[in-house]
Write a structure and sequence with these properties.
- The chain has 17 helices and six strands.
- It is mostly helical.
- Strands 1-2-3 form a three-stranded antiparallel sheet, with no helix packed on it.
- A hairpin with a 2-residue loop joins β2 and β3.
- The relative contact order is 0.12.
- Bound molecules: acetyl coenzyme *A (ACO).
- Acetyl coenzyme *A binds next to loops.
Length: 428
Amino acid sequence: MPETLTITDNRTGKKYEIPLEHGAIKATDLRQVEVKDDEFGLTSYDPALMNTATVKSRITFIDGEKGVLEYRGYPIDQLADPTSSYLEVAYLLLHGDLPNQAQFEGWRQNIRLHTYVHENIKKFLEGFRYDAHPMGMFISTIAAHSTFYPEAKDVMRPEVRLKQIYRLIGKVTTIAAFAYRHSKGLPYVYPQNDLSYCGNFLNMMFKTGESRHALHPTLERALTLLFILHADHEQNCSTNAMRSIASSHVDPYSAVAGAAAALWGPLHGGANEAVLHMLEEIGSVEKVPQLIKDVKEGKRRLMGFGHRIYKNYDPRAKVIKGLADEVFEVRGKNAKLDIALELERVASEDDYFLKRKLYPNVDFYSGLIYEAMGFPLDFFPVLFAIPRTAGWLAHWQEQITDPEQKIVRPRQIYLGERRRTWVPIARR
Ligand code: ACO
């Protein structure tokens, strides 16, 4: 059976044989389909890139129908092993294999060496109003780092790239915690490098008078797991932004700031906050049937349910649900969790949701956990961006070292006016 596709152009009767590779055709092979020699040739129209693969990637695999998510071939539930750490998973995403002990120690040490930010960053943050959104501060501060490390623009040198990877993974928690402390008017807490990645972050966020924030192992573990679950998700909106920006060979600070900006939108990283607003609005378990009725009548959406790719239980949501129980055991039960559980129970037995394959996604329980841990709602997108930095950087490396990639430059179908005649303003 030939691995080709035959296209017949009914305008000319001509036939074209297009090769298939990995179950896809190359969009540029369509260009040979033309009526006249001076035409550009056939192009494909795909708003929102719904059916276009823009990369050959070896980082993350998703099977949305079966509810499978793997980083470098490792299923996400295995990476959520009780002994796993976020930095190990970041290493896996960036290097392709899990580190052995010596590789891990070296990796962790290099990241720890880069957790401090330049002292001028404190002055930079002081320029923001007390009520500035933490994600706005986070994005701008990351972008500002390109001015501190001008050598970072030398992106084709592997050793330069590796240095920026250490710096970015090391500094994102510090930048995030400093943004939070600024909004609270609290003094900045410097990194404590004998703590774990997540332990250090929690200490920089919440330490007050004591010499060190009293870390609860369950909460530290919960944050580690949430960071692992959010570390990558292949070609989503922000990763596509990262690749597109990086394709111009700009420095990675500018590219990560752009990816984080894409993540901030309510259709992407903002859904967990929307879930909490919805649970607050419902108020009690007794009001769940009314909400479900409204959803089924098309009056509103059940936030934290459904996914463009997963048409089965989001594998991340499965891990997070177990985590929620552990966190609430430590923090005390929260009425919103009962409402969430009831919503899930009712939806899992209702034809409306079953027919449409609507299951809880990663955001259904993550916001509840973050809130129970003491993070403010507007900080949730920052908590998404911190771990996703490793994923963005893995895609950045893959993008700029792939010989098949070029600067991203899609085409358009132009439907506007042509060849109009200029009339001076006085005569318009
Ligand atoms: N509540 C109720 N109905 C829903 C929901 C929902 N959350 N999601 C989809 N549907 C229904 C739609 O009304 C539609 O029904 P219809 O066929 O009768 O018209 C059907 O399911 C298909 O919906 P689409 O909008 O076509 O699905 P799409 O794949 O485009 O949307 C999305 C996916 C945006 C995630 C959607 O499910 C949604 O809005 N969910 C709520 C927001 C949310 O939780 N987002 C977080 C996603 S996870 C993440 O980004 C990290």
